[in-house]
Amino acid sequence: MSGSSRRPRLFRRHSSREIMNNLASVSSSFLPAFGTIVDETYHLHLKKFVIAPYDRRYRWWQTFLVVLVIYSAWASPFELAFKKVSMGPLLPLDLIVDAFFAIDIILTFFVSYLDKTTYLLVVDHKKIAMRYVTKMLFPMDVASTLPFQLIHRVVTGKVHSGEAFRFLSLLRLWRLRRVSQLFKRLEKDTRFSYFITRCCKLICATLFSVHSAGCFYFWLATRHKNPENTWIGSQVPDFEQRTIKLGYTYSIYWAVVTLTTVGYGDLHAVNPSEKAFTLFYMLFNIGLTAYVIGNMTNLIVHNAIRTFAVRDSINEILRYGSKNRLPEGLKDQMLAHLQLKSKTVELQQEEVIENLPKAIRTSISQHLFYPTIEKTYILRGVSQDFIAQMVSEIKAEYFPPKLLSKLGSSDMAGEIAVLLNIPQPFTLRTKKLSQVIRISHDHFKQLVKPNSQDGNILLSNFIQYLKSLKQEIVQEIPCLPELLSDLATITEATDLNEHPQNQESVDGNTRVIEEDVGGNCCPWCNVRVIIHGNSPNQNTTKGKLVYLPPTIEDLYRLAENKFGKRPNMIVIGDDSEVEELNALRDNDHLYLIF
């Protein structure tokens, strides 16, 4: 090992920016294998001349091609409608764009893909090539890239701008699938607003529909035998000799007016072919309009769903209160609780946290609540590991203002009921909106049981707290003096168990005999039993509920303390003698034989 050992790349810490970039790079259908980090400096064990689909450079290349796709989506219908530009200024630009897509076809033979059965990247060149060639992607990519006009000119030596070549140029619209894939990635990428991304997608779909319909409608007018008997010829008789700008303006105007169902009537279908296309376009507009309105409504209403739910809940509470004639004060409390819940739901976000792995939830709790928990009186002196385990089990709640007594930050409430296993003696209310973190009784017991040393410290802190309570508070807690007496007895037994040394004299020498007494001193961890000062066959006297001590001897000592004399035997209801305390359960009845 060298002096400066390097940690494996898998375990190196990454910044939030790097993590976001990694997530964005795999936001499509490509997912890396478990245990890999995706960034620009690390790749899987790829073969030579194999490109990872989530490689940053390849992603930029794909984004650049989307810009070219936008040009193709505009140019293909435009060249169909206006013959002048198909062999004019747009031809060189079309050839350059086709060249870039030809390069992409070649690159695709070197791009690995995700196997749907093993979810591993396939990096074998033959498998990559066979998958691309045997699917529909390859022939369509080739057909949409071939410059048919240039090929015809090279083969025949003649320049031809017939309609067949202009229709073949519409194959470039196959490239629009890249735009759809881009929007899918952007919708999953948290660095971009979903609302804005969705709106851009709807706008692009609408603009493309208007552009395509207008160009095709103008092409119908140029194909008719009598130019004057067309939708534009009736308004502009010599439209074929006029500028492209004029024809395109008329076409887009008609498409927008028809899409929005305004229908001024100044431009209308004249011949049967135009009427047939208009009918098709109007039916298509019904679906497009429904799609756009539905998506926009969903985006707008999505943020108001929670408000609607709160209003419905308020109305239900008001109806319930009126139907059952509840007092106004009680109804106000119900409404205040509901309003508080609706206001704090964004602060708690439990539905989000619950879906995260336990390790992440624990880290969140450690960050939010650890500084507060470690300052509480009951956890002074306990181990950091115990506090960390406790923090992972707590949950946060909000309480509306209502004051009875004053508690500050890191103060506790409800620990008396939990630790003594009695009903909560106090009602707590808040002076202002307060956040309270809580842990359930069962979770607390499960935490303390395997940590007896921390439990002893916690118990000692709790007893000191009880002894420091004011007299008026002590009077409110039922049986507190007796409970303190029981705790003192258990604590005394605990001290003996921690130093269980008996001296025995052998041949005039003294030796120490250590006894393994086991057990747990924590009263909330022990079993509760009811002891009676009589045998099972006698009339049952009023029993006493106590915590089961760690050993039989401690139980005898506790019985002597309660009834004034030491029993000779302890039995259960069927006269069976108790020899193992581990066999007892909560609320078992024990009978003392004197």
TrEMBL record:
It comes from the Eukaryota. Pfam families: Ion_trans (PF00520), KHA (PF11834). Residues 401-465 form the Cyclic nucleotide-binding domain. It is a multi-pass membrane protein. Its main location: membrane. Residues 528-594 form the KHA domain. CDD domains: CAP_ED. The chain crosses the membrane at residues 59-78, 90-114, 195-220, 248-267, 279-301. Keywords: Ion channel, Ion transport, Membrane, Potassium, Potassium channel, Potassium transport, Transmembrane, Transmembrane helix, Transport, Voltage-gated channel. GO terms for molecular function: voltage-gated potassium channel activity. Belongs to the potassium channel family. Plant (TC 1.A.1.4) subfamily. This is Potassium channel KAT3.
